[in-house]
Write a structure and sequence with these properties.
By secondary structure, the chain is of the alpha+beta class. The chain folds into two domains: 318 residues, 3-Layer(aba) Sandwich (Alkaline Phosphatase, subunit A); 249 residues, Sandwich (Jelly Rolls). 21% of the residues lie in helices and 27% in strands. The protein has 15 helices and 33 strands. The strands form five sheets. Strands 7-6-5-4-8-1-9-10-2-11 form a ten-stranded mixed beta sheet. Strands 17, 19, 20, 21, 22, 24, 29, 30, 31 and 33 form a ten-stranded mixed beta sheet that branches. Helix 3 packs parallel to helix 10. Bound molecules: calcium ion. Calcium ion binds next to loops.
């Protein structure tokens, strides 16, 4: 007995110590605030710290003077979209198929940052950071891609690749009013997921909101701010306040450009002043860079000594003004000459915040190099690819290789020839074969583009004639009916476009799929009619093309299927994590019918991936029942573990004999701790999610899930041979709400 008591005391002490340690770890976790100031299409030579003389940038220069000027600072691409995708994920964007500038396509969840990727905001949020994105987004216009759905807590700006600067030119309410790619420049600005009435010049409005966010956050949790000015990207528009500073510049375009840069510089000044005033400047890392080189002819920018400009893989396209400060931690007035890249920003922030990433990063934590704790160079090689042009570049130490296709290569020594004027013979290069091999290795890890780009707009429009017609106002930022308090609509499938289910969201299962069911799944049996998805179960014979009499697999040893039906799902097209899913549907309760509304986890195999059956109707012990379940993996025997609720259909029929003829609302309420399943507001099952955590820490219900709607026949549904066909399973809508962030 005594021993037992002692054991208990020891256990108690150990737990107390464990708690103390974990609290200590939590405190250690809090890294510095991170601010990334990104300008758009600004030339390498257009900042004071790189020698600009006609446009003073005293505030941007403050960053370099307070900290480091990077003389070989790069971005990952020569135009806006892919460069931003690299910066915000810390990974070469070609790893996830972002090799093109995305089209503005608010109906298309695939036209933007793939959901497999975590943004810097998502990752820093794990360490308690609050994040705000400001200005140009350009990483996807579909609602699932909006900043608040990609890890940010707040957003002020616009979704398109550019924008008009004057409020009187913001003539469109939102994306539902756009008729073409460039109409995105004319919408009202967004604050979070809604639209605001803004009166200020765009650059000034962004600066004001940035300062206000810092004020709000100071003293609270650490913050990450992504301040993506669209200046000095075209259209060339500036107010008199800034224009009059540049009367000495005769060229009108250069004068406007200078004014636009000057407005950014004022904003940077306000922000730095605020950090100092709040005494948080030594706890805040500030990065400044441009998203690509200047398009000199287009906006009158100046890339200094660098060859070519925006969209080129010569230095002028990818080598940008780049500086950072972290007073008290990184020496002031430093000049750092080794190549660094925008990917390093996330790697640095994540390392300082002790945050873990799902995907490996390509960047390097720069702080040990800047403090002199680490010698050598951060990157052995840097790589660039322009997929559609089959144009590539590699930088290795002083040397650069440009490559078009397999054989056409150019070589330069940038330490002697930053302007890439004197092409070297391969024999004059140091380790050219090593560079070629490194490039081939890198390429083998890259993915082809996963969406059409700006250059394929015509082709895209042919394939997507309804690109700019928003089929359901619910999918865009208008107010849907009956949103639960504290929530907002993330996604809605209203099934209001007659024809096939919208292929942007829905895919089909085909043939014999699972559970020895009798039906042959085929797309023909799913149609949208009268505002509803109708899945029909039919008695019709389909020859099994995989028939093999000798096979032991039931999918192969049946010569025919006697029934057909359909099963649709949003796999790889739409997923969500947490929130409320609401589905209004009518089920066929005939013998043999097994309809379902369910979700599956995006990662791992079944059952480890996790399954939620929001609704199933089938026969259990011969009795027709409505079921509400979750299933996950059992690590001991690889079989599913079930948490099921089964309610006999008779209990619904007692209350309402017409129950089967009516539509009902099934609902899943999901947060990281619990899933609750409701039918017509009655709670049927509540699943504690902690019990599904595996020994490696993975929990199948703490990951995104996709949606499935299907009508199976036979198997658990019972024998349909005496049932009158067709059977009809109808779904009126699927709506997903998520909690509003404050
Ligand atoms: Ca740009």
């Amino acid at each position: 007995m005594k021993n037992l008591k002692l054991n208990k005391i020891i256990l108690f002490l150990s737990i107390t110590i464990l708690f103390a340690i974990s609290e200590l770890r939590a405190a250690e976790k809090s890294g510095p605030n991170v601010i990334v100031i990104l300008t758009d299409d600004q030339g390498y030579g257009d900042v004071g710290f790189n020698g600009c003389t006609d446009i003073p940038t005293p505030n941007i220069d403050r960053i370099a003077n307070n900290g480091v000027k990077f003389t070989n600072g790069y971005v990952t691409y020569a135009v806006c979209g892919p460069s931003r995708a690299g910066l915000i994920t810390g990974r070469y964007q070609d790893r996830f198929g972002f090799g093109r500038n995305p089209l503005l396509a608010p109906n298309d969840p695939g036209e933007g940052l793939p959901l497999s990727e975590e943004t810097m905001a998502t990752v820093l949020n794990k360490s308690g950071y609050k994040s705000m994105a400001l200005g140009k987004w350009h990483l996807g216009a579909h609602r699932s891609q909006w900043p608040l759905n990609r890890g940010f807590d707040e957003f002020f700006g616009f979704l398109s690749g550019g924008h008009q600067y004057f409020p009187e030119l913001w003539t469109l309410q939102n994306l539902s009013e756009i008729k073409g790619q460039w109409d995105g420049y004319k919408t009202k600005l967004m604050h979070n997921n809604g639209r605001v009435e803004e009166q200020e010049y765009l650059t000034d409005a962004l600066s004001r909101e940035a300062v206000s966010f810092v004020e709000k956050q100071a003293g609270g949790s650490p913050f990450f701010m992504y301040l993506a000015y669209n200046a000095p990207h075209a259209p060339m528009q500036a107010t008199e306040k800034y224009l009059k500073r540049f009367n000495h510049i005769k060229d009108e375009k250069r004068r406007t450009y200078a004014a636009m840069v000057s407005a950014v510089d004022d904003g940077v000044g306000l922000l730095l002043n605020k950090l100092e005033e709040l005494k948080i400047d030594d706890n805040t890392i500030v990065f400044f860079l441009s998203d690509n080189g200047g398009p000199e002819d287009h906006n009158a920018s100046d890339n200094g000594p660098l060859r070519e400009g925006k969209s080129s893989l010569y230095e002028g396209g990818i080598h940008v003004p780049f500086a950072m400060q972290w007073p008290g931690h990184v020496p002031a007035g430093m000049v750092y000459n080794h190549p660094v890249i925008s990917l390093d920003i996330m790697a640095t922030a994540v390392a300082l915040a002790n945050a873990g990433t799902k995907n490996p990063l390509d960047g390097v934590n720069l702080i040990p190099y800047l403090k002199g704790e680490k010698q050598g160079i951060p990157h052995k090689e840097l790589f660039w690819r322009k997929y559609d042009q089959d144009w590539h570049a590699v930088r290795s130490k002083d040397y650069k290789m440009l490559r078009r296709g397999e054989s056409d290569t150019e070589w330069y020594n940038l330490s002697k020839d930053i302007s890439e004027k004197n092409e070297l013979a391969k024999a004059e290069m140091k380790d050219p074969e090593e560079m070629l091999m490194a490039h081939d290795n890198w390429l083998s890890e890259m993915k082809d583009p996963v969406f059409w780009g700006l250059m394929q707009g015509g082709e895209y429009n042919k394939k997507h004639p309804s690109r700019f017609s928003i089929p359901s106002p619910l999918r865009i930022d208008s107010t849907p009916p009956q949103i639960p308090a504290g929530y907002e609509l993330l996604w809605a499938e209203e099934f209001d476009q007659p024809g096939k289910p919208d292929e942007k969201y829905w895919s089909y299962e085909n043939g014999f799929v699972r559970n020895n069911e009798l039906q042959w799944y085929q797309p023909d049996n799913a149609m949208v009619k009268n505002g509803k998805l109708v899945i029909e179960g039919k008695r019709e014979e389909v020859r099994n093309p995989n028939y093999n009499k000798k096979s032991e697999n039931w999918r192969e040893n049946r010569k025919y299927a006697e029934y057909t039906s359909a099963s649709i799902n949003t796999k790889e097209k739409f997923t969500f994590q947490y929130g409320i899913m609401e589905v209004r549907a009518r089920v066929d309760t005939s013998m043999g019918s097994w309809p379902a509304i369910w979700t599956l986890g995006a990662e791992r195999r079944w059952p480890e991936k996790g399954e939620v059956d929001v609704m199933e109707y089938y026969r259990h012990d011969g009795i027709p029942k409505i079921l509400a379940n979750a299933a996950w993996g059992n690590e001991k025997n690889y079989r599913p573990v079930w948490d099921s609720a089964r309610v006999p259909l008779s209990s619904f029929l007692q209350k309402d004999p017409a129950w089967p003829e009516k539509f009902h609302v099934w609902k899943m309420v999901w947060n990281e701790n619990v899933i609750q399943l409701y039918l017509d507001e009655v709670l049927l099952n509540e699943i504690d999610l902690e019990k599904a955590t595996y020994s490696d820490g993975f929990n199948p219900f703490r990951q995104p899930h996709y949606i499935l709607l299907n009508l199976a026949l036979g198997s658990n549904g019972g024998d349909p041979s005496n049932t009158q066909f067709p059977l009809k399973y109808e779904v009126d809508y699927v709506r997903i709400y998520q909690r509003k962030s404050n």
